[in-house]
Structure to design on (767 residues):
């Protein structure tokens, strides 16, 4: 139960219990010593009483004065331990060992023969056998003392007899307990508050360290260091030093985390910048070709008008792409048209021509297209440029746009290196990571996810790779995707 | 006894003039015939008598009758409150000073007492064979002479007793029997009754199993040759005690009714008993 208590309570309480236990132990030992001393004191008192009785009763015995011997015994026996409770008595025996007088005539009757007799199972020595002081220890712990009373010339006139019952020698635990309890109470009264105070004083530095540890990560390290206790105690000193080191290491780690976070933010900015540059750069080659076409064939009204429309739609695509990066900007995007597909083919033409790729297309529009033109132009241009790049030289690429009432699908197939779904997932993950090159496929997957569609590898396609992008053919794509 | 002559003599004594003993001392010896170890009472009584006599009265106590009689014969005391037995034994050397009145008479009884409660082993004098007996004093009527007569009458000799001893006073006899130091004892009936009135254990823890015939109450005596004027003044003061409050209070403490001059014939029964007991010192 003690171990469940707080440390700040355990130590004072433990000290207090130790005080009480020590007091009880001391009391118990003292009681044992007192009991032994009491027996020795009782025997010494009996010896002194026997000497006194022998000396005082000598003339009375010689004068055959029973009454005065009785008076002497009655007064002297009152000093024997246990006399007050009838557990000690004295007698003077005549020369033949009969009771001359006793302090308790009911137990030791006047003129009763004692020496040389068997009384209550006790065989007494004969009068002639008692020549010196003799102590008889009975099995039950009682004692009897016999001492000859001699005249000056050595004649035995009688005997002094004292008997003390066993209970007199037994330790009076009840009497010992009271002062012992008073002692324990006094010790507790004086030492318990002292033990409690010392205990609290001992635990105070530990509590300070605990509070400092609790404050790590929340409070200023300098303030925490100031609160650390400075003590000469070696154990507490080690704990304080360890906590101080912990605070230092934590400071270093926090600085490192801040640097890492800054670097990560910089990397993210770099990736975003690369992606934006990629998405802007994709149509730029086609737009530059268009400006060249305009300068060469701008005399033709039809060519000029078609080229300017191409330029307008291409620049709008770039504006829409950039606007998507600005949270405050909201650009109204128009629905996809067939001309947008044609624009994408035109914008990709420089790459197609450069890589000597044969591009074939197929358009199947069964229902009105309601998807936003800017993001679909972005997807189609990315997929087409990626397919041209992966088709090899010379290679073939087949782009296909299909729209029905439910969804719009755009696919690019090439006969180049095959791409599995897993490889696509790895590539998309890589493009979203630290690899700034080729953001096209990642942008396609992000747009598909954002508009509730998909962007996957057609696993049923034969040689080469066919990538399929689809999205619902409706205007509320963002809300559906959010649902 | 000639009652008329006795009363007439008493009246003459009461009317006697104060003793002209201003610078003299009057010493009175006390024995165990009364509870004489109460110092405060004796001091009050001495003051009372000193005022009445115009002399300095003092009391001297001894626990043995013989010692008091030796003081008296040596002239160390002027009077003694002794027992009827030594009065008749040493009557030629003594003169009667006064006799107390107990229950209206100058008479008392001897008691045979035994411990109260416990096993009853003594019912009378004839049961004393093999028992321990307590006497009061060798010169005590109730505490030695009466038991001797009764033992003789019961056919019990001293050797038939298991043991006997003198307790040096009636009060000690009662204490010896109460504590069972003795199986029985003979005691002055007046002392035992007075102890009982005072609630003393010696009386409350013993019981009377026999009472003697009436004998002359222990008298106050003086040596035969003592100057009469001195004695008459003391006698007059004693006899006059019931006449004033202080005297009555002292008599109440003594459990007595008063004093009379008395006649030696009061002690005839003791004299007869002493004559019948061998070794009593009184010729048959």
């Amino acid at each position: 139960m003690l171990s469940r208590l707080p440390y700040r309570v355990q130590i004072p309480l433990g000290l207090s219990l130790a005080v009480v236990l020590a007091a009880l132990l001391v009391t118990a030992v003292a009681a044992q010593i007192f009991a032994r001393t009491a027996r020795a004191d009782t025997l010494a008192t009996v010896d002194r009483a026997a000497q006194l009785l022998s000396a005082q009763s000598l003339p009375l015995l010689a004068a055959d004065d029973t009454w005065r011997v009785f008076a002497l015994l009655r007064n002297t026996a009152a000093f024997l331990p246990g006399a007050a409770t009838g557990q000690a008595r004295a007698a003077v025996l005549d020369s033949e060992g009969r009771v001359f007088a006793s302090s308790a005539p009911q137990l030791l009757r006047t003129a009763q023969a004692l020496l040389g007799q068997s009384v209550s199972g006790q065989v007494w020595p004969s009068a002639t056998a008692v020549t010196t002081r003799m102590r008889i220890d009975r099995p039950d712990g009682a004692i009897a003392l016999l001492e000859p009373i001699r005249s000056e010339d050595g004649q035995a006139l009688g005997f002094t007899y004292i008997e003390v019952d066993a209970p007199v020698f037994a330790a009076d635990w009840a009497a010992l307990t009271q002062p012992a309890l008073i002692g324990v109470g006094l010790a507790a009264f004086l030492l318990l508050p002292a033990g409690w105070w010392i205990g609290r004083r001992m635990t105070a530095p530990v509590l300070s360290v605990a509070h400092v540890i609790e404050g790590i990560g929340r409070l200023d390290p300098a303030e925490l260091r100031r609160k650390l206790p400075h003590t000469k105690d070696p154990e507490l000193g080690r704990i304080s030093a360890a906590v101080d080191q912990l605070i230092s290491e934590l400071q270093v780690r926090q600085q490192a985390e801040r640097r890492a976070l800054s670097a990560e933010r910089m990397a993210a900015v770099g990736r975003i910048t690369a992606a934006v540059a990629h998405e802007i750069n994709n149509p730029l080659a086609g737009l530059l070709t268009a400006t060249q076409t305009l300068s060469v064939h701008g005399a033709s009204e039809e060519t000029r008008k078609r080229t300017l429309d191409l330029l307008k739609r291409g620049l709008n695509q770039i504006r829409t792409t950039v606007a998507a990066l600005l949270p405050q900007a909201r650009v109204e995007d128009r629905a996809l048209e067939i001309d947008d597909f044609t624009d994408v083919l035109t914008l990709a033409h420089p790459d197609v021509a450069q890589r000597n790729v044969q591009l074939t297309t197929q358009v199947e529009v069964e229902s009105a297209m309601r998807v936003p033109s800017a993001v679909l132009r972005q997807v189609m241009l990315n997929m087409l440029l990626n397919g041209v790049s992966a088709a090899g030289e010379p290679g073939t690429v087949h782009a296909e746009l299909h729209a029905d009432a439910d969804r719009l699908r755009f696919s690019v197939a090439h006969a180049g290196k095959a791409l599995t779904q897993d490889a696509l997932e790895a590539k998309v993950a890589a493009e979203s990571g630290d690899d700034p090159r080729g953001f096209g496929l990642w942008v396609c997957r992000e747009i598909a996810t954002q508009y509730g569609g998909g962007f996957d590898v057609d696993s049923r396609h034969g040689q080469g790779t066919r990538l399929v992008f689809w999205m619902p053919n409706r205007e509320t794509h963002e809300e559906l995707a959010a649902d | 006894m000639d009652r008329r002559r006795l009363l007439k003599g008493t009246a003459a004594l009461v009317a006697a003039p104060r003793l002209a003993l201003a610078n003299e001392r009057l010493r009175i010896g006390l024995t165990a015939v009364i509870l004489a170890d109460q110092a405060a009472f004796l001091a009050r009584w001495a003051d009372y008598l000193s005022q009445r006599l115009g002399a300095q009265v003092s009391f001297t106590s001894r626990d043995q009758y013989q010692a008091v009689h030796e003081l008296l014969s040596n002239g160390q005391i002027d009077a003694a409150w002794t027992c009827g037995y030594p009065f008749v034994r040493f009557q030629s050397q003594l003169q009667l000073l006064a006799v107390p009145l107990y229950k209206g008479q100058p008479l008392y009884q001897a008691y045979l007492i035994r411990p109260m409660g416990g096993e009853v082993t003594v019912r009378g004098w004839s049961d004393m064979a093999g028992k321990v007996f307590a006497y009061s004093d060798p010169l005590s009527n109730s505490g030695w002479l009466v038991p001797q007569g009764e033992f003789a009458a019961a056919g019990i000799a001293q050797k038939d007793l298991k043991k006997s001893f003198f307790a040096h006073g009636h009060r000690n006899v009662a204490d010896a029997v109460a504590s069972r130091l003795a199986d029985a004892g003979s005691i002055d009936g007046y002392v035992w009754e007075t102890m009982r009135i005072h609630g003393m254990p010696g009386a409350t823890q013993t019981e009377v199993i026999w009472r003697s015939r009436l004998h002359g109450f222990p008298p106050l005596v003086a040596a035969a040759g003592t100057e009469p004027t001195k004695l008459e003044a003391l006698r007059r003061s004693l006899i006059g005690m019931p006449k004033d409050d202080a005297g009555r209070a002292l008599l109440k403490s003594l459990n007595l009714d008063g004093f009379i001059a008395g006649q030696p014939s009061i002690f005839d029964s003791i004299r007869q008993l002493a004559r019948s007991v061998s070794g009593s010192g009184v010729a048959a």
